[in-house]
């Protein structure tokens, strides 16, 4: 979380780019990135995070489990993967092609 509580966490963006769902601490603008129950989970305290982690890993690696469902939604999203975004955005800036 940023010190202002208003910046979106870039680690979440990186994780989504790798199709990795997140558990993220709740703050003012997080809803712009993390949709609770759809592409990850939002928690407010350690107890809530512990319950979420137990739920996510209780049936691991069952493809019908909640963790697998989150990953599938991220894979189906229109957002580019991390490596695709790098090649389109950053690579042209650092190469002399």
Number of domains: 1
Strand line-up across the major sheet: 1-2
Low-confidence stretches: none
Spell the H/E element sequence: HEEHHH
**Largest sheet properties:** 2 strands, parallel
First-last Cα distance? 37 Å
Q: Taking Cα atoms only, what radius of gyration do you get, to the nearest Å?
A: 15 Å
Helix content: 40-55%
**Tally of individual helices:** 4
- Coarse shape: flat
Question: Could you explain how this protein is built, in words?
Answer:
The structure is a single chain. This protein is mainly alpha-helical and 97 residues long. The chain has one domain. The protein has 4 helices and 2 strands; from the N terminus they run αββααα. The protein has helices spanning 10-17, 46-57, 66-76, 82-94, and strands at residues 22-25, 40-43. The protein has a two-stranded parallel sheet. The chain starts with 9 loop residues before the first helix and ends with a helix.
Features:
97 residues; two-stranded parallel sheet; single chain; flat; 45% helix; mainly alpha
Topology:
Blueprint: H1 10-17, E1 22-25, E2 40-43, H2 46-57, H3 66-76, H4 82-94
Parallel strand pairs: 1-2
Q: What's a concise summary of this model?
A:
The protein is mainly alpha-helical and 97 residues long. It is 45% helix and 8% strand.
